[in-house]
Amino acid sequence: MSDPKTIPPSADLTRIIESARRLGVEMDEADALQWLTALAADQGEEIVMDERTGVFGHRVSMLDFSPADLEHFRRVGRLVEFKDVPGVVETALALSGSSAQSKIQAYPGDADYFERINIKAESRAAACKILADTMRKKALDTLKGTNYQLIEVKYGSYPCDLVKEGKPVAKGSPAAWSAAEVQAGQIDAFTPEGKALSIKWDDLASDPGWCKLDWVVADPARGQLANASNMLDVTWEAPDGSITPLDGYLDPYFQEVYLEAESVPIFSKLAQHVSADAMDEYIHQLEKEVNKYLTRDVNYGKAAKRMYNIFRLTGRYEEAAFIRELFDEPASMLYQVWSLVRTMDECSQPGSTIEVEAVRAQADRLILSVVEALEGAEETAIVRHLMNLRRSLDNLASGEGLTTEAEATRGEVINIVNNFFFEKLSALPQIRVYMDGFQEK
User: Fold this and answer.
1) How far apart are CA 4 and CA 399, in angstroms?
2) What is the pLDDT of residues 262-274, one digit of tens each?
3) Tell me, what DSSP letter sits at residue 8?
4) CB atoms within 10 A of CB 125
5) 80-114 per-position pLDDT tens digit
């Protein structure tokens, strides 16, 4: 991977603006120049703090963070966060994904969090046991409430090839626990030969693997639903002070904005153990995800977000600036469709505490936003499909499965969203060449 280029921002800016105008993407010239100048400059300190708010993170991440919704994210953070246990558990909660890029993503989808959890214990086995107990307690304590509902917990790995709910799962893949399975403390499945097999929560403690919790959250004050997730990076601190990641890898910090200044000590202690090759590995992981969203689980919106992070960290500032503006375009509000669709799914699950009326209201707001922001044939097609999707909710009650009509309409809407991002991304030659490189493989 080449080092980021230090280039005169004004030289690239002219090309970027000309490309954006040609492709129908509005660009704020002053804002773009300020961002390019800050990005290209050598600012010395890699980690910076906003003294007024107390948030901190990698200097590139901080350029895209706006404190406008900070209190909202801190409020949701109180639901998803893990608490410190003096002398045993230390934590540092951060925003990640689009939530950490609120300055450029005017229409973010989910509320993504990332939490570093450091467990002090006599042995790795003891640390794993503490994590197992802590995660299950957190899940049970936040199963459902007036404005939230636990969707899924990723914890441990499947010990062998299995068939779960009629679908095959591979040995070693992350074990996905529903709320009911967390409550029961076990996953019931079958071997490929049809033999019943139960996996106990504690059976997976020695190899916790990828740890993540997902909720759907209704926010009456903001009048919207969102998926809130917390991905954990768990480490064991031995009595001699050595730090060991329980999943074998200490995550880098290139896309995190930490919410509290009090987290600086634990962050600083762990950050010094991040590999010297962390940037290269981070880019490699992002490229694997880009490849997935371009070739298998096609989602050009998610691919665009990951390409933006690759471009801004590897000195491809022209491409990064274009995508940055793309996500500030009114049409990018269509990215919210994925979030709306997922909340429709969760609302339709038996025992859901999320009222279908909240989903209907969110669909109504999305339609109004599209009408206000778009025009012409593009608006007509999108609104028609969104209205069909909205009508499919009229006869849906909380806890009832989606109708065939709703499923079909949902597919049409998602296809429109994909087409929007594909057309915009493909129109810039440099990005089209980059995407073609993955699709040719």
Assistant:
1) 50
2) 999 999 999 989 8
3) -
4) 12
5) 999 999 999 999 999 997 777 776 665 555 789 99
